[in-house]
Amino acid sequence: MSQKRDGDLTTLSMADLLALRDRVDAEIRSRRSHDDRALRDRGGMIERDGPRYVNPANSAETWSGRGRQPAWVAEALEKGATLEELEVLDDRPVHGS
Length: 97
Prior knowledge:
Elements: H1 14-41, E1 53-55, E2 58-63, H2 71-78, H3 83-86
Antiparallel strand pairs: 1-2
């Protein structure tokens, strides 16, 4: 996969673009997971109402973790994802900490 230094993606083939997207998505998931762990270790994660999990392929699809598991969650788990990887990061400050 060749890429100009100026970031011009127009020269990449569709296969190269898809491979690059997969690499970028994997790096984002890795960093979010690391950030989530660090936030939990500091005691910064808080309970809240609303969505707890988000579909990484479609952020409009969320799940509270209650009730029947959506198909996108089951599919992600079948592909090797973990629920922790699908969690929504809640980085609001915790009062009193």
